[in-house]
Amino acid sequence: MAGAGTHREHGRRRGQLSQLNQLNQHGQHDRQHGGGTMIARMFKQIRPLAGVELKAIACGSLGHLLAVFAVMLGVHGAVSWYEGRAFWPQVVAAIVCGLLAGPCAYGEQLNNHELAFRLLRDIRTEVFNTMRRLAPAKLKERGRGNLVTMLTEDIELLELFYAHTLSPIAIAALCTVVNSVVLAVINPWLGLAAFVAYLLVGLALPFAFKDVTFRTALQERERQGQLHTDLLESLDGRRELIALGASRNTRDRLKADTDAMTNARRKTRKVTGLNSIITDALTLLCLVAFAAIAWSLIQSGSLADPALALAALGGFAVSFPPLIAVSRLGSGIQPTFAAARRVFALMDETPAVREHESDEGAKLGAFTGLKAEDVTFHYPDSRDNVLKGLDLTINPGDVIGIQGENGAGKSTLIDILMRFRDVTGGKVTVSDQPIEDINTASLRAAETLVSQDTFIFSDTLAGNIAVARPDATREEIADAAHAACLDEVIDQFPDGLDHMLLRNGSELSDGQKQRVAVARAFLSRAPFMLFDEPTSNMDALTEGQVMRALIDQQHGRAYLIVSHRPAVLAHASRILTMENGRLG
């Protein structure tokens, strides 16, 4: 088991290095192009829903402008009333504008969130499809916690971009132009002053904060993903950690991960807080400056009507919300960009193999055998061959046993024969067809794998056995369970095969889980079965029963059994030894 653990640790390190390299490459590319590539890709997702986005922009722009006009008309009417002039037209118009602003704001939010939620649905579907293509080889190299964070929090963060970024930026731009023109009609200097203020708050300030907010946000996402990965691993391995007395070290490691995430989050919050303070202060300074300009224009006689000056000041004061929203996007949108980079890095990762889906690839007929000729293989980040000139022939009815030291390449060979990975040299054929040319569904129908690590789904015991054949009859499931020596497991549950298993089958021992995996294999109709330490967690009596059942249920199938146990290999018709990547 130590070799398996070492193999998993190496896989995890390869995955972490791969993720860091991809993120660095994305980061360098985005910096060279001003982040345009990633943003352009996010915009590309919107094209099918451009009409919804345009409705959101129209509703939002109209709502904000109506709110500004309501204040300007209301202030002008109040001053007119104070001076004894007619004021009802302005007051009525202000009320109408105020009433219409509400439905417009609702329309903006409705369309924004319809756009966002439909896009998140599509992105999540695309990510799941990517994960299916990457499984199992590439996903083994990624931490589960990182994947969970990506599928939940990272994708949810994209909602900020699609619901609260695109339309606010467009709304801020439109309102900036319209408000500046309206104020310029009252007085050109007021229009110019407003335009400069809008540029400072809505453009200069976000640009000044974009680099530091992105760095802190990306660091926070990475720290959180690492914490989730280590936490899930600690929960999965809690029995081993307690048995080995490693609880304190694990607790210290999780505390260090938590501290790192907390520190990264604290830096993000500091940047966000500083951005808010500066935004508010700059907005207040702009308002004071605008009031001073209006006052000077009145004093110089350039603006003769004080009512218009006060209306302009009131309208300018309430015209900042769209700009402030954009200004504060710098601290809110950068975590979204960091999340998007992580999601796109996964979506851009090249699968270990190219699958042939639908009608692509050759369809297998009857299984006539498998042949590996002069096969070599090395991992992408290494030049050292794990398999070296390996030859293997398997015919129907064969029972081939493979033994060897940990790290000799046995698990890698299984990955190659299952086409979880492609060879780097030599060739593998199944029924005289090159394995890389075979339709994936057809290949999966011809091969099945029972590994030493069995996952139990949150389903009934019967559902877990029939996971690959949901159309199997009750009798077929019961026969497979009986053949896998699961009778006493069925009897211990009041509901028998209908008992619901939860939390990765926490009620089952590791040996019982392996028997569920063997039952799955019995239920399979695959003519070639691969077994990777299928009885490693069983006692000797159960192991003997299961192996005898395997031989009794062979019916012309070909078996490849990898095991360290002589009692298991004793059932093989031919035993080969894996040593330094070669079979002998």
TrEMBL record:
Superkingdom of the organism of origin: Bacteria
GO MF entries: ABC-type oligopeptide transporter activity; ATP binding; ATP hydrolysis activity
Domain ABC transporter: 370-583
Every ABC transmembrane type-1 domain range: 91-334
Transmembrane segments: 54-75, 87-106, 160-183, 189-209, 274-295, 307-326
Extent of the signal sequence: none
Name the UniProt record assigns to this protein: ABC transporter ATP-binding protein
Organism whose genome encodes this protein: Bifidobacterium vespertilionis
